[in-house]
Amino acid sequence: MTTIEDLVSRYREPLESFPLELAAERKKKHPEKKLVGCYPVYHPAELIHAAGMLPVGVIGGGNRLEIAHADSRFQSFICSIVKSTLELGLTGKLDFLDGIVFHSICDPARNLGSVFARNFPKLMVDYIHFPQNMTSPHTVDYLVSEYSRIKARYQDLAGKSVHDDDLRRSIAVYNEQRGLLRELYAVRAAKPQNVSTVESYVLTRIGTLMPPEEHIPLLKEALAAIHARDEKTKDRIKVVLEGSFCEQPPLELIEGLEAAGCYILDDDFLLGWRWFLRDVPVEGDPLRNLAQSYIRQSVYSGVKHDTREPKSKHLIDKVRETGASAALILSAKFCEPALFDYALYKRALEKEGIPHLFLEFEEKMWIFDKARTEVETFVESMLFD
Ligand code: SF4
Fold it and tell me: Ligand 1 centre from 362 Cα, in Å?
């Protein structure tokens, strides 16, 4: 049986050196297959998949990418992922893509979509406006029409009509993939000694770079290996991690947080690829099912404007439900949605008496001593309180 160590070491180095390598290699081998990049956070990947194309998570350039061109095109107070994504484009590292889609998550992402449209005229560039009002009776209809518009763009790009049955098949495939990811996260929350956060991260991230039909058997194999593990529990505090829903921290940083004395029971890494709390219904109108699931059964996030329940309540619930004793807020530097959320989280966590530590990261950071020392101090303050 393949071990988790084998699986993770097979994919970790490519992810660290050039996160998009798996997808770029695929394009070299199958140039006829069209690939569409999906900027964070959430994208209805089913619409791309149903058109016979591959959705690819364009989730930054990693910490080995030198930013030589994009820096001069943005203000200094912009998050790293916006710069690294443009740098990838300007240096030809996104040439393997046939299209790229952005979303209404924040002003920098919105502007990046326009910058791409202007600078890369051969690339199909589009942008999804997700609803800002989740309680209006028109919200679902609005999102259905937005999905219908983007579906037409994908049909043009693929040169293929997408029928409802194509979409239903794609929804079923992604339901299976997301279900396995939910299982992976549940196993980690229950027995964090048996699967590290870095392992679960690598297993999740590769699913943004390969067809779900290949990711699903790989996840099944990994889960079987994880269930067979029986590691001893270490003397660590249990935390949930929040704030990294868009730009992703370097793997060494995640590793350092655990090594500093934490079991991370839950996180919001790669959130858009695990977006639904339950399966999207397969029967019925597929666009409406996707839209209704976005409104009624998707995760909370700093980039989803939902006034029905405060995000801080969700975070507190997550801490309580997982049995964590603290929260780590790990936000990308200059990420406004994450920083706005932190103001709310801080107040709620303090009110509930839940200790927390706030840390900032940058995608391109490669010195982790300071973060690790801060976490060690935090852990010690809890263990010896
Ligand atoms: S990291 Fe934050 S500010 Fe930057 S693109 Fe993502 S959501 Fe927007």
Answer: 11
**Is any atom of ligand 1 closer than 6 Å to the C-beta of 243?**
no
Cα–Cα distance between 288 and 147 in angstroms, integer? 9
* Coil vs helix vs strand at 124: strand
Whole-number average pLDDT of the chain: 95
Region of 159 (left: φ > 0; alpha: ψ -120 to 50; beta: rest) is left
Tens of pLDDT, residue by residue over 357-378, are: 999 999 988 888 899 999 999 9
CA nearest to 89, candidates 123, 55, 41: 123
Q: Which ligand 1 atom sits nearest the alpha carbon of residue 303?
A: 7
Query: Could you report the per-residue pLDDT of 273-318, keeping only the tens digit for each?
Result: 999 999 999 999 999 999 999 999 999 998 998 889 899 999 999 9
Which residue out of 245, 247, 304 has the highest number of ligand 1 atoms within 8 Å of its CB and is therefore the one to mutate? 247
Q: Is 59 in the pocket of ligand 1 (CB under 6 A)?
A: no
- Answer yes or no: pTM beyond 0.90: yes
CB neighbour list of residue 51: distance below 8 Å, 6 or more residues apart: 151, 154, 155, 157, 158, 160, 162, 166
